[in-house]
Design goal:
single chain, 154 residues, alpha+beta, four-stranded antiparallel β-sheet, 4 strands
């Protein structure tokens, strides 16, 4: 896929809670390699949109396409292996920082050497090297968020 191609596309995306539309008729193109930020007040639909893009919340209307293929055509597990999602409140397992960061790669069967290289790169990039052996339950909120980000980037 070329860098300027659309990776994620929504068309007419809507999600309703009762009579309230959290997201209504949204068309969005996210190109490969680009970074987006979603800003807005509480209730503007930011989390709803992200949960729908992660296929954790089903839209009421519209379509989401990843790499040209509708989410309805993806196996949930296959799709979730292609994306990462970091919740506002970090979800870490009761294991070391290193083990938490490597968890997704372990599930995917990534070779040990590649896993160690990628984990080391992101632990260093996020400034959590000194925490690598610490258990998740011993982390501050900010430290836990950085561990979650490292796991997503890995």
């Amino acid at each position: 896929m070329a860098k300027d191609e659309v990776l994620i596309r929504t068309h007419g995306l809507s999600r309703k809670f009762g009579s309230y539309y959290a997201v209504e008729d949204l068309d969005l193109n996210i190109k490969k390699g680009q970074t987006y930020g979603f800003l807005g007040p509480n209730g503007a639909g930011k989390s709803t949109l992200l949960l729908a893009l992660a296929n954790l919340l089903k839209p009421a209307q519209g379509d989401i396409r990843f790499d040209g293929k509708s989410l309805s055509g993806w196996n949930d597990l296959e799709y979730r292996r292609k994306i990462s999602f970091v919740f506002q409140s970090p979800l870490l397992m009761d294991m070391s920082v290193e083990q938490n960061v490597a968890l997704g790669l372990k599930f995917r069967g990534t070779p040990r050497e590649e896993t160690q290289e990628r984990v080391g790169k992101w632990i260093k990039a996020l400034g959590i090297e000194s925490l690598a052996k610490r258990r998740a339950g011993q982390l501050s909120g900010g430290e836990a968020q950085r561990v979650s980000l490292a796991r997503a980037f890995v």
